[in-house]
Amino acid sequence: SDSRSAVARAGVILLAVKPQQIYAALGVLQSVLKKNQLIISIAAGIAMRSIETILARRHPIVRAMPNLPLTINEGITAWCANSAVGKAQKRIAQNFLSAGAMTCEVKESQLNAVTALSAVGQGVLYTFMALLLEEIVALRVPRAAADQLVRTTIAGAARLLQQSAHTARELAAHVATKGGITEAALKSVQRDHFNRLITHAVRAAYARAQELSR
Ligand SMILES: NC(=O)c1ccc[n+]([C@@H]2O[C@H](COP(=O)([O-])OP(=O)(O)OC[C@H]3O[C@@H](n4cnc5c(N)ncnc54)[C@H](OP(=O)(O)O)[C@@H]3O)[C@@H](O)[C@H]2O)c1
């Protein structure tokens, strides 16, 4: 098949199939895969050990967790390599993963936490923005203007944090003038246990990632 002949000529094989398709994909490749060909897997929740179990041998594997802003060159990809990956292969992997994303090498045991961060930092943030939009529209700002205001406020706040020497907590304190409007908002979310909401969301995402990678 096509993928078999492509693999026969490749130095690096990128596994970008859905997690549940990985066993079938590796099954097809197994007989043509040579033991020095680096596998880079982006399948969420599939442990490097599981890939080696399918191949029934030690094999150089890099596991990476990209995120969606990769599509606009603003991604961040956490990755790890097993001990079969040589120095040169590690450099190749790092170079490859740097296209469109910052990279961050972690231990495999930390990848599920990164996945939880990605889930909350994207899914929960977008939901927060959708709710914020509805509230601003309810205060009689036209939807188109409110939409632009929400997108740009959050994007600007995120960019400012990224370029700032201050922590997120320090920036929050900085914008919350005593007796002011931001302080009123912060006191309100504190009363409503914002921290508990975030703790629960992160733990739920982490638990699900653990479950899927079992
Ligand atoms: N989107 C993200 O931000 C993100 C972040 C981290 C990780 N991931 C991971 O990225 C992976 C891909 O996700 P996706 O949403 O892009 O999935 P997708 O759109 O379903 O793409 C999977 C691709 O794999 C191909 N494929 C399936 N079985 C194959 C086989 N046996 N041999 C060769 N190719 C095969 C499919 O081809 P056909 O269409 O011809 O079947 C399809 O092009 C997933 O494992 C996901 O967990 C995504």
Automatic annotation (TrEMBL):
List the SUPFAM superfamilies.
6-phosphogluconate dehydrogenase C-terminal domain-like, NAD(P)-binding Rossmann-fold domains
Q: Which UniProt keywords apply?
A: NADP, Oxidoreductase
Q: Which residues form the Pyrroline-5-carboxylate reductase catalytic N-terminal domain?
A: 3-45
Name its GO BP terms in alphabetical order: L-proline biosynthetic process
GO terms assigned for molecular function: pyrroline-5-carboxylate reductase activity
Q: Which residues form the Pyrroline-5-carboxylate reductase dimerisation domain?
A: 108-212
Going by the entry's taxonomy, the superkingdom of the source organism is recorded as: Bacteria
The UniProt record lists the keyword Ion transport:
no
Q: Which family does it belong to?
A: Belongs to the pyrroline-5-carboxylate reductase family.
Q: List the HAMAP family hit by this protein, alphabetically.
A: P5C_reductase
What is this protein called in UniProt?
Pyrroline-5-carboxylate reductase
